């Protein structure tokens, strides 16, 4: 039987506010346990939440970026359950009236085609603390530094049909939130986490199959692997005549499988009700318009502009707009050197190769965009030839000079284009190579083309690589042919 | 000294008749001698009180005394006080020392008041008799067989017994007004949002409000001046200017339109309480007020709606008492669930457990719409009743409670206890301000007249109460217990 996979994602994005969503404590990552939890975060008796306006603005920006409806009124609700890392015994979230309504995220598939994925809504909520099960000898430690960090939970419709699409969707969300500057998108530090809903159904069937929810999948790669495993599991189960039960499962990346965590019957009744400590959030049109007017260019727009206005290929445009850091870097190189295609070639060629070799992110590149732009400019204006340019790049990478010009100067890499100087070097090489000249002269004219390579090499060597190779070729041919 | 109002004490301090330190020592001495029998305090803060009194005396000597500088008061033990135990009347918080001050505590301290300690209360403010305290019931200074009312029973009894001239209470369904009525003192529940709730341990967040309890309306005005105002730490505390609540006290009442809600004078109202209230209303007529009957048609839904909304909020508010970070933790928990179950089972009293269970049930899947949503709809209707009535009249008057203080142990059935709050609960649901002022006695037990106004009309209510107190001396009566122990 042919099976169809239905996937929906709930992506939790930590918003990059300086302080927490309902308190003034810092949100910085990695501090000593419980040093960034104030009375409000600890849920001490009598404390009250006060909403951080920056979190609201970030949520609205995301909504605008996915062309979502932004309701005038949104309301915080309490989700009640007991857990040691949930200090108040409830999580303040938005159940009934979320801040962002329905919208659309466009994903780019590997073949370059795009597909719209509908977002059901996105809501604001507070993160919980962390339970630490190691190092406490049979006890559990609780770190509440993370408690109260603002989260935007983005809930998609079940519009994805493969693990690849799900990963592309996650990348698109990552790209949007980093472009907007509303999250650092750092998955290793938990800035983006996602729950994956997976179900399968026989192809052609209208109704949905029973879904399983895989909790807390924390990398693009794991999302693909978890879905792949889960789809196989469900299909196998159904083909053997079994049924899929609605349940929550955990992905174990080490064993590459998902395991049951709790079934629907064991699920909590969260007893949602409006939080009486917080007023409804009312957003007027002027506020929303102001945020809309100040949105940065978003990935899809940038990709389109790279293709249409800069004349890049669809592939180049897609790669160079994939992350804000990449796009910013590329655009600066382009601005400095003045040529989009050359800039694209260098960023994706020499730079990407070097970054890959050393496992560095573009923001950690030892060669700045300005330095690379200046280097490319020197190639374009023929100050150096391609071979020298690679040498200069390596020198910049190794920190051997502050700028391309300084390195060109210091290492004498400036391309020699003075015909007189090149002719002098050619004359010297011809004078020093009587045997080769004789061979050349005696050869059939159609074989001579290959033999000229030796002379070119000698001239380039004599110029320490700085002679303009085209000029050397043309002048050599003239001079040698004159001897025949 | 212990018999005076705040205003009188200020005059004495200003005149140098005694110092704040002497006054404080005198009252601390009375607490030592009398409170063993009364049980109105949970914690007495001797050292802090004397230090604050000395600082107040120094401020006065430097010519920097404000309206409340050096005046003693007590705080209901629901307000967090830095470095001082804050129990909310519960075993759960018997060991809890708050690391911060509630906004109200901060403001009163900034005004120069001297807190003598933390007063007894029904556990987590759940109760109408102060019998639900882990620290034992409080006696009514007028009659030791009677309850002082609740939940701010300790605050009311301490003021009535002359242990302290004023105290701060909280009112979620009548917890300032009913004990004020039972103990023959003046109490004000401000408009919801008038006073910050930050640092006040939450019972039902959408209903809780702090207010003053004192020996006169004028004293309540002085205290509200210090307590009211916006607080950046409480989103439900309104950004609205605070008037000087003493300014309108002397405005004559000629032309005042008083409404008597028909529903507040019906079945279940003790005839002697009714007689006292009607006598009080005649005093207002003699001051030039006109009286008419009005209707609050949804009154009989107030108690059911309250007992859905308040327990729902409480069930969530009290989840933080889980034995993990502070408060009571059971001995040797076997695992996490055991820790939760036993810590909460041991830490909470019966009434608190009852309301947590009610609230947990009404918020549960399948019941939420029928209970919580419906109760919120009813709440809007009740609010509308009051708004409609205030289109016709300036203030509403009636009894604060259907009976005078009842006997300790008289209301063993929770529902009969809940029904005691029939005249006070709707006011919290509507969010409007209300007062109780002394208006006579049934036998030796005081009767309270309740005065209600529309949102943010505290100045008017205080004016109405003050004018009544200019023409009557019910608020000047003192229980024999206080007199004998002078």
Q: Proportion of β residues of chain A? A: 15-25%
> What is the mean predicted local confidence, pLDDT of chain A?
92
Shape of chain A: elongated
Q: Termini of chain A, distance in Å?
A: 77 Å
Helix and strand run of chain B: HHEHEHEHEHEEHEHEHHHHEHHEEHH
What would your notes on this structure say?
The complex is a heterodimer of chains A (484) and B (486). Chain A has 16 helices and 15 strands. With 484 residues, chain A is α+β, with helices and mostly antiparallel strands. Chain A has 3 domains: 3-287, no CATH class; 297-411, no CATH class; 419-483, Arc Repressor Mutant, subunit A, CATH 1.10.10.410. In chain A, strand 12 (247-252) and strand 13 (257-263) form a beta hairpin. The termini of chain A are far apart. Chain B has a domain at 6-254 and 457-484: Alpha-Beta Complex (Amidase signature (AS) enzymes), CATH 3.90.1300. Chain B contains 16 helices and 11 strands. Chain B has an 11-stranded mixed sheet with strand order 1-3-2-4-6-5-10-11-9-7-8, with helices on both faces. In chain B, helix 4 (103-110) links the parallel strand 2 and strand 3 (114-119). In chain B, helix 7 (217-227) runs antiparallel to helix 15 and helix 9 crosses helix 12 (369-392). The radius of gyration of chain B is 21 Å and the shape is globular. The relative contact order of chain B is 0.14. The mean pLDDT of chain B is 97. At the A-B interface, loops of A face helix 9 of B.
Please outline the helices and strands.
The complex is a heterodimer of chains A (484) and B (486).
Chain A (H helix, E strand, L loop, with lengths): L2 E12 L24 H4 L10 H13 L7 E2 L2 E4 L9 E4 L9 E6 L5 E13 L3 E3 L8 E3 L6 E7 L6 H18 L11 E11 L9 E6 L2 H20 L7 E6 L4 E7 L9 E2 L6 E2 L2 H9 L5 H10 L5 H7 L3 H14 L2 H19 L10 H12 L5 H12 L6 H8 L7 H14 L1 H9 L2 H18 L6 H15 L1
Parallel strand pairs in A: 11-12
Antiparallel strand pairs in A: 1-9, 1-10, 2-15, 3-4, 3-14, 5-6, 6-9, 7-8, 10-11, 12-13
Chain B lengths: L5 H10 L4 H19 L2 E4 L1 H16 L10 E5 L26 H8 L3 E6 L33 H8 L5 E5 L6 H7 L2 E4 L20 E5 L2 H11 L29 E5 L9 H16 L3 E5 L7 H16 L18 H12 L2 H13 L6 H24 L2 E5 L14 H5 L6 H6 L3 E9 L2 E8 L5 H14 L8 H5 L2
Parallel strand pairs in B: 2-3, 2-4, 7-8, 7-9
Antiparallel strand pairs in B: 1-3, 4-6, 5-6, 5-10, 9-11, 10-11
């Amino acid at each position: 039987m042919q099976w169809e996979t239905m996937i929906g994602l709930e992506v939790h994005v930590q918003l990059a506010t300086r302080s927490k969503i309902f308190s003034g404590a810092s949100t910085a990552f990695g501090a000593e346990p419980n040093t960034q939890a104030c009375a409000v975060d600890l849920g001490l008796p009598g404390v009250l939440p006060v909403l951080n306006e920056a979190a609201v603005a970030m949520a609205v920006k995301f909504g605008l970026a996915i062309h979502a409806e932004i309701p005038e009124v949104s309301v915080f609700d309490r989700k009640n359950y007991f857990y040691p890392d949930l200090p108040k015994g409830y999580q303040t979230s938005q159940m009934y009236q979320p801040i962002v309504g329905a919208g659309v995220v466009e994903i780019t598939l590997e073949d370059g085609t795009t597909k719209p994925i509908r977002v059901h809504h996105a809501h604001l909520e507070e993160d919980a603390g962390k339970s630490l099960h190691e190092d406490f000898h049979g006890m559990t430690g609780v770190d509440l530094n993370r408690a109260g960090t603002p989260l935007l939970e983005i809930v998609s419709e079940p519009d994805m049909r493969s693990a690849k699409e799900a990963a592309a969707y996650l990348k698109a969300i990552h790209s949007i939130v980093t472009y907007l500057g509303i999250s650092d998108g750092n998955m290793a530090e938990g800035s983006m986490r996602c729950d994956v809903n997976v179900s399968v159904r026989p192809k052609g069937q209208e109704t949905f199959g029973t879904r399983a929810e895989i909790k807390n999948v924390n990398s693009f790669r794991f999302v693909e692997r978890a879905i792949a495993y889960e789809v196989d599991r469900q299909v196998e189960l159904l083909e053997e005549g079994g049924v899929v039960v609605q349940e929550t499962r955990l992905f174990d990346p080490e064993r590459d499988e998902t395991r049951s965590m709790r079934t629907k019957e064991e699920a909590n009744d969260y007893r949602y009700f409006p939080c009486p400590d917080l007023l409804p959030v009312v957003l007027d049109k002027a506020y929303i318009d102001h945020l809309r007017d100040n949105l940065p260019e978003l990935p899809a727009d940038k990709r389109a502009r790279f293709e249409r206005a800069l004349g890049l290929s669809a592939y180049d445009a897609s790669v160079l707009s994939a992350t804000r850091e990449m796009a910013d870097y590329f655009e600066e190189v382009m601005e400095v050197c003045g040529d989009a295609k050359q800039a694209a070639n260098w960023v994706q060629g020499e730079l990407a190769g070097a970054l890959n070799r050393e496992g560095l992110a573009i923001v950690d590149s030892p060669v700045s965009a300005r330095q690379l732009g200046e280097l490319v400019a020197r190639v374009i204006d023929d100050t150096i030839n391609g071979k020298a340019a690679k040498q200069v790049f390596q020198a910049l990478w190794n920190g051997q000079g502050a700028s391309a010009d300084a390195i060109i100067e210091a290492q004498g890499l400036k391309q020699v284009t003075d015909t007189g100087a090149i002719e002098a070097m050619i004359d010297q090489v011809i004078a020093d190579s009587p045997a080769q000249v004789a061979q050349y002269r005696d050869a059939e004219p159609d074989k001579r083309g290959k033999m000229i390579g030796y002379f070119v090499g000698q001239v380039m060597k004599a110029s320490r690589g700085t002679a303009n190779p085209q000029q050397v070729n043309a002048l050599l041919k003239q001079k040698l042919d004159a001897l025949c | 000294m212990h018999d005076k109002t705040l205003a009188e004490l200020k005059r004495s301090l200003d005149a140098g008749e005694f110092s704040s330190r002497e006054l404080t020592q005198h009252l601390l001495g009375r607490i030592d001698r009398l409170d063993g029998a009364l049980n109105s305090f949970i914690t007495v803060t001797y050292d802090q009180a004397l230090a604050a009194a000395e600082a107040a005396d120094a401020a006065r000597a430097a010519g920097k005394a404000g309206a409340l500088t050096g005046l003693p008061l007590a705080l209901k033990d629901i307000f967090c006080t830095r470095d001082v135990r804050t129990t909310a009347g519960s075993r759960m918080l018997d060991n809890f020392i708050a690391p911060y001050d509630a906004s109200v505590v901060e403001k009163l301290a900034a005004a120069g008041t001297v807190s003598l300690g933390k007063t007894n209360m029904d556990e987590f403010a759940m109760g109408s008799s102060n019998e639900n305290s882990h620290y034992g019931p409080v006696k009514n200074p007028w009659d030791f067989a009677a309850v002082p009312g609740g939940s701010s029973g300790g605050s009311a009894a301490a003021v009535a017994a002359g242990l302290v001239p004023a105290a701060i209470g909280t009112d979620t369904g009548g917890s300032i007004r009913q004990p004020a009525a039972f103990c023959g003192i003046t109490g004000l529940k401000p408009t919801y949002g008038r006073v910050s709730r930050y640092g006040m341990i939450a019972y039902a967040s959408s209903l809780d409000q702090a207010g003053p309890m004192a020996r006169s309306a004028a004293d309540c005005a002085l205290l509200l001046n210090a307590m009211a105002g916006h607080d950046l730490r409480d989103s439900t505390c309104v950004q609205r200017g605070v008037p000087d609540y003493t300014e309108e006290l002397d405005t004559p009442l000629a032309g005042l339109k008083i409404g008597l809600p028909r529903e507040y004078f019906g079945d279940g109202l003790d005839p002697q309480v009714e007689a006292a209230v009607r006598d009080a209303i005649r005093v207002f007529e003699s001051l030039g007020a006109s009286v008419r009957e009005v209707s609050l048609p949804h009154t009989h839904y107030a108690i059911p709606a309250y007992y859905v909304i308040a327990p729902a909020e409480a069930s969530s508010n009290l989840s933080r008492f889980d034995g993990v970070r502070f408060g009571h933790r059971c001995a040797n928990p076997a695992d996490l669930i055991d820790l939760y179950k036993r810590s909460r089972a041991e830490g909470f009293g019966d009434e608190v457990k009852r309301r947590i269970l009610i609230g947990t049930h009404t918020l549960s899947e399948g019941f939420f719409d029928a209970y919580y949503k419906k109760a919120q709809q009813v709440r809007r209707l009740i609010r509308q009743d009051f708004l409609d009535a205030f289109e016709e009249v300036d203030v509403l008057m009636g009894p604060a409670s259907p009976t005078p203080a009842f006997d300790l142990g008289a209301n063993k059935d929770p529902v009969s206890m809940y029904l005691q709050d029939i005249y006070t609960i709707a006011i919290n649901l509507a969010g409007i301000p209300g007062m109780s002022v002394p208006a006579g006695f049934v036998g030796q037990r005081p009767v309270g007249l309740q005065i209600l106004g529309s949102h943010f009309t505290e100045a008017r209510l205080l004016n109405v109460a003050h004018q009544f107190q200019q023409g009557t001396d019910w608020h000047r009566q003192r229980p024999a217990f206080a007199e004998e122990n002078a």
